[in-house]
Write a structure and sequence with these properties.
With about 150 residues, this protein is of the alpha/beta class. The chain starts with a strand and ends in an 11-residue tail after the last strand. The protein contains 5 helices and 7 strands, in the order E-H-E-H-E-H-E-H-E-H-E-E. Strand 3 (about 45-50), helix 3 (about 60-75) and strand 4 (about 80-85) form a beta-alpha-beta unit. The radius of gyration is 15 Å and the shape is globular. It has a single domain, classed as 3-Layer(aba) Sandwich (Rossmann fold).
Length: about 150
Amino acid sequence: MRILVVDDDVQFTSHLLSVKPRTADVEVVHDTYSAMEKLRLTEPDVVVLDMRMAPLLAPDAASEGLAILGAIRGGRRGRLPVVVVTESSDADTLAWCESLGADAVLQKADGLKQVFEAASRAVLATSLDAGQKVDGEGPVEGGPSESRAG
């Protein structure tokens, strides 16, 4: 599974990479410009997106991740699964992210491994929504590619 992580918190992304599953191909970018460029040039299976980032598209840091989410949903890859991560514990904020099209919303305090679990579930759900054939382990035949250890 190819995962694009968009988060300006270098410490968080370093910790995230330290617990990544060995079958995951993870690429990290730390700013909005790099995120938009990677989305234009590559084909990740899922994006893990920090809600609060240095503003480039939005008027403030609190909205930047959601501006990226809006750009994804409004672009050619509109159904690309997106998992939003945030430090916020406010229920209204978490619900707002989901209403804007996040496939999952996690608090960073929930744990790093949960990020990868949510990413995998989002890819699977999107594959099922698209009517792709799925076996007991995940997407196959036309779905996102994932290495499987023998």
